[in-house]
Fold each of these.
Amino acid sequence: MSTTLIWLILGACLCLSELFVPTAFVAFMMGISAFIVALLSLVLGNLWLQALSWLLLSTTLILLSRKYISPRRRRSKMRDAVLAETITEIPPGKTGRVLYEGNSWQARCDDHKAFIAADQRVYVVRREGTTLIVMPENILHS
C-alpha cells in the first residue's frame, strides 16, 4: 500500500470522526492536513518528512481555525444591570442565591464578614464563573 493511499485514508477517517465526535475542528483540520500531505507524498519520498509536514500543517491549521473560525465572545451584560435581589440569605463567607436578570444565580458577598438577609437588594460587583459576587445595597450607601 502506498503512503499516498495511507494519508488519504487517514485524512478521510479524521474528517469523518469530526461528524461523530465534535472536537472543535481539531480532527477535521488534522484530516485536511493529511489530505495535503497525501499530495505532498507524491513529491516527498521520506516518511519522516511526510509525518513532520503533517504535524506542522495540523498545528498551523488548528491555530488558524481557532483564530478565524471561533465565535467572538460577547461583551457581558454585567455592566448594564447591576442590581439583584437575594432569594436566600448569604452567610459570611458562604454562598446563597440571588435573582439577577430574571434568573436564580449562586452568589457570595464580596465582604467575607458581611451577612446578607433574604429579600434584600444587592449590587452585583463581578462574576466568577457561575457565582455572582455581590455587595448589600445598604453597605454601599452608608
Amino acid sequence: MNDEADHRVATQATSRHWQTRGPNDRMAHLVKETWRGLTRAFQMRLSEHAVSFGHWVFLRILWENDGLTLSRLSGEAGLMVPTTFSAIKAMERLGYVTRRQQPDSKRKVYIFLTEKGKSLRESLVPLAEEVNRIATQGAPLEDVEATRRTLLLMVGNLARDELELSKNERKMPSTRDLVTHPSLDEDP
C-alpha cells in the first residue's frame, strides 16, 4: 500500500474505534480525539495558504486584539513565552507580524500584525468555519448549542480547579521538571 492508502485505512479504523468505544469512553478522550480531528482538518486547509496551525493561534488572537506584549500573547494562547517567541520570530520572517517598542515603554516589545497578516483573516476564517460545519454536520442545532454550553462550563470548571491548585502551591510542571524529578532516581 502507498502512504495515502495507509492513511485512509488508519483514518477509517480510528473512526470505527471511536464510534464503537467512544460512547462509553471518558470525556477527556473524546475531547482529545475531537480536537485532534479538528486540528488535522483545519491544518490540511491552512496548508493550502502556507500557514501553520501554530501561527493561526496567534493570528486569531491578534486579529481581535493587535499590539500585545509577548507575555500577554503567550497568556492568551495558553503557551509558554519561549514557544510564543519562536513562533513570532517565524511569523515575522514570513511577513505576518512586526515587533516594536512603544514610546511610553522602552522595556516592553509589542507584537503587531502587518498588512499581510491582517489580510490572511479574509481567507482563513472561512476555513475555520468550514471545519466547524463539517464537524457538527448532522447534529441538531440544539445539540450543538448544548455541547458549546457544556464545553464552556467545563473550561470554567477546570480553570477554577487550576486556580485552586495553584493556591496550594501546585503548578503545571514543565517537561524538564518532570524528566528531572527526584523520584525518577529512586529504585522501585
Amino acid sequence: MQSDLAGQLTDFGHRLLVRVYFEDTDFSGVVYHARYLHFLERGRSDYLRLKGIGHRELADGIHGEPMAFAVRHMEIDFLRPARIDDVLAVETRTILLGGARVILQQRILSDQTVLVEAKVKVAVISPEGKPRRMPDAVSAILSTDIAST
C-alpha cells in the first residue's frame, strides 16, 4: 500500500501519479503555477522514500551522520496547462551527483504530453543548515539511477 501511495520506482527513477483538485487551480480551472512546485516536491520526496532514504532516515543519521536535502536552485519551464480533475504523472530522475549536491530532472505529464520540465539542484546540509558531503551510502543508492538513464 505504501509503495502505491508513494508512486513507483522505474527504470529511469520514479513516477508518481497526482490528481488535480479544485484547490490546485485558479478561477478558470487551470492549475496555478505555484502548485506545480508542490507536485514536484512530492515526486522528489517519494522518490527518496522508496529508495530507502526518506527525510526521517536522513535526519536520524541512518546512512551516516544526520543530514537533510535543501533545494538550492530550480529551473522550470511551464509548457502546457493542466486542468481540474486531470491525473498527472510526476517523473523524477537523478542526473548528477557531487560531493554535496544532487541534480534531479523532473517532468510533469498528462498522458504522454509534457506539461512542465524542471531541473532541481539540491544541496546536502547538516542539521544546523551548513553544507556537508553526502554520505557514501546515500550516494551509492542515488548513483544506481544515473547509470540507467
Amino acid sequence: MVRISNLDIIEILLKNSRTSFMEIAKSLGVSETAVRKRIRKMEEEGIIRRYTIDVDEKKLGFDVNAVIGLDTKPENYLSVIGKLKKIKRIRSLYSSSGDHMIMMEVWLKNSEELSKFINELSKIEGVTRVCPAILIEKIR
C-alpha cells in the first residue's frame, strides 16, 4: 500500500492548482478517490484555503513589481494596516518581524507610478519609513 502525505499533494497543487484528482493520483500511485478525500479533508481543516493562479504582471502592463517595507509608530500600527487593506493595488500585505513591521507587494505601470505610490504611503498618519525594492526577475 502506497502512503501519501498532505505535502505530496500540496507540492503538486502548488505547481499547478488545476491539476486534476486523476493526474495527482496517477503521479502518486494511489486511487483518485484517496486523493479526492485527502484534498476535501485539507480544505475542511483549512490547510488548503483557496486555489489561485500565477500571473505574468508584465503582460498586463505592470512593468514594476515592488516589495515595500513599511514602519509605523507603534500606536498607529493597526490604523495603518486598516488603511493599507483598502488599497487595491497592493497585491499582498504582511505583518512581519525583522527590518520592517509591514511588507507588501505591489504591481505598478512604471517608476513614476512607484514614486507617487511611495509618496502616498509616506503621507499615511503614523508611517515612519517606506523602503521599496524593485523585483527584477522571478526565479522560482
